[in-house]
Amino acid sequence: MIKTFKEVVEKAKSQEKRTISVAVAQDEHVLEAVKDAKEQGLVNAVLVGDKEKILEIAKKINMNPEDYEIIDEKNNKKAALKAVEIVSSGKGHMVMKGLIDTASFLRAVLNKEIGLRTGKLMSHVGVFEIPKLEKIILVTDAAFNMYPELKDKIDIVKNSVTVAHSMGIENPKVAPICAVEVVNPKMPATLDAATLSKMNDRGQIKGCVIDGPLALDNAISREAAKHKGIGGEVAGQADIFLVPNIESGNIMYKTLTYAADCKNGGLLVGTAAPVVLTSRNDSHESKLNAIALAALVAGQLNK
Predict the structure, then answer these.
(1) Distance between CA atoms of residues 8 and 129, nearest Å
(2) Between helices 5-14 and 284-301, what is the axis angle to 10°?
(3) Beta strand pairing status for 263-269 and 43-49?
(4) Which pLDDT does position 302 carry in this prediction?
(5) CB contact set of 232 (below 8 Å; sequence gap of 6+)
(6) DSSP states of the chain as a string?
(7) How do the pLDDT tens digits run along the chain, 303 residues long?
(8) pTM of this structure
(9) 131 within 8 A of 262, measured Cβ to Cβ
(10) Which residues contact 169 (CB under 8 A, 6 or more apart)?
(11) Which among 42, 103, 175, 245 could disulfide-bond with 37, CB atoms 3.0 to 4.6 Å apart, if both were Cys?
(12) What is the pLDDT of residue 11?
């Protein structure tokens, strides 16, 4: 089982090379990550955007433009649509946001004619390499769905399981995170957690093991779980942390990012192809990790 992002990158290199389509590619930080991914043998790339500006940045970062297909489209919204169309038509396998606002980019991703809709809920999966735990964990959904209901959480779990499978985690352990470990009718998240666990028991959610509700300490620490007398396959050894809402997820995501010594990467899934939606605050390493993850998920979806 993969435990580090170094292994994620190596696994992505070992599979058939995928093509990433970059929407409004004239972003220096994005192009640096794409260049690095290309040079490491992770992906091929199609760059859609203002060709003149792309070439200026390429010269600045010592990027050989002849190694990339560049499609000149100066209108940002049209460039985003073209980048998405490249993927939906099968010429690319994943799409990445460049120098365009998130709302406009997502409108292109969800375009009814040429977008990447599947009928499933789209959700964000954050992946973290945590040295203290000597493993990789997945956190979902910390960035996209604000207050998911039970039906939404079913898709969120399934989306995260796809990412876990792409990384070689064959039967990921899913912990629906709550404030307590017992079902409390006054705490809706615990009811959802119990229902998800029962659905998993009955084979309605496959490819993983779900057990909850679990508080974070009992999902992440075997000692804490043992101290409270909590057993089962998931307690203390969860791979996927299903958070109850965007506030709790955002806090967990940013705490791991800024206060813990761990590496990370993230992407949107639930679409016909993975979507790399990084922010300008993300490090170069995080962007590269996200591209590697997207390549693995693209491979999983094309099996």
Answers:
(1) 10
(2) 50
(3) unpaired
(4) 82
(5) 211
(6) ---SHHHHHHHHHHSPPEEEEEES---HHHHHHHHHHHHTTSEEEEEEE-HHHHHHHHHHTT--GGGSEEEE--SHHHHHHHHHHHHHTTS-SEEEE-SS-HHHHHHHHT-TTTS---SSPPEEEEEEEETTTTEEEEEESSSS-SS--HHHHHHHHHHHHHHHHHTT-SS-EEEEB-SSSS--TT-HHHHHHHHHHHHHHTTSS-SSEE---B-HHHHH-HHHHHHTT--SSSTT--SEEE-SSHHHHHHHHHHHHHHSS-EEEEEEESSSS-EE---TTS-HHHHHHHHHHHHHHHHHHT-
(7) 788 999 999 999 999 999 999 999 999 999 999 999 999 999 999 999 999 999 999 999 999 999 999 999 999 999 999 999 999 999 999 999 999 999 999 999 999 999 999 989 999 999 999 999 999 999 999 999 999 999 999 999 999 999 999 999 999 999 999 999 999 999 999 999 999 999 999 999 999 999 999 999 999 999 999 999 999 999 999 999 999 999 999 999 999 999 988 999 999 999 999 999 988 778 899 999 999 999 999 999 987
(8) 0.95
(9) yes
(10) 1, 2, 239
(11) 42
(12) 94
Cα dihedral 194, 196, 197, 198 sign: positive
Distance CA 275, CA 261 (A): 26
Which amino acid appears at position 133 of this protein? L
Q: Name the residue among 295, 300, 296, 303 with its Cα closest to residue 45.
A: 295
Q: Do residues 139 and 112 touch, judged by C-beta distance below 8 A?
A: no
Residue 234: name the closest of 219, 224, 216 by CA. Answer: 219
- Which residue carries 């990158």 as its tokens? 9
Cβ(292)–Cβ(34) below 8 Å: no
Half-sphere exposure of 270 (CA within 13 A, CB side): 23
Alpha carbon distance 267, 122 (integer Å):
10
